[in-house]
Specification:
By secondary structure, the protein is an alpha+beta fold. 47% of the residues lie in helices and 32% in strands. The protein has a five-stranded antiparallel sheet, covered by helices on one side. The longest helix has 36 residues.
């Protein structure tokens, strides 16, 4: 029964990391599709705020900048959306260009098109997740060998 933990925990970690990789690829594809096929509109930044995570014990603090934007579609519909990780120079009241797909206007982005940066960031994060998955698999293999010898 104790041995089961050495298989169950890494398996759950692999499942969670696989889901994170799936969400990462979906996000990159969505942003790329919006940049390539999206319509543009002028949006106003309604609010900016930051969230922090970490900082407990001896860990570092990670701060994420959030923006809340509002824009009108070509049909005149007012859309409000929130985006993480935008430019730190955009302040409340500033106007920015957003891109959106007409069939999903709530999935807009104010990030300027930068395919190279998107591919690099997504690739690095996928590689990092892959390394952790490989570590979990190696851990399970080593645990299996140790339990087989005992």
């Amino acid at each position: 029964m104790f041995e089961l933990l050495f298989y169950l925990v890494p398996t759950l970690m692999i499942a969670g990391l696989g889901y994170a990789a799936y969400r990462l690829v979906l996000r990159a594809r969505r942003i790329s599709r919006v940049w390539e096929h999206g319509l543009t509109a002028e949006a106003r930044c309604l609010r900016t705020y930051t969230t922090t995570s970490g900082g407990g014990g001896n860990t570092s603090v990670h701060t994420t900048l959030h923006h809340v934007y509002e824009y009108a579609t070509r049909e005149g519909r007012t859309i409000r959306f929130e985006e993480e990780g935008g430019s730190g120079t955009v302040l409340e009241g500033d106007f920015v260009t957003v891109r959106y797909l007409p069939d999903h206007p709530h999935l807009a982005t104010a990030l300027p098109p930068s395919r190279g940066k998107l591919v690099f960031e997504s690739g690095c994060l996928l590689a990092f997740l892959g390394v952790i998955i490989v570590f979990c698999l190696v851990f399970m293999a080593v645990a299996h060998m140790m339990f087989a010898e005992a």
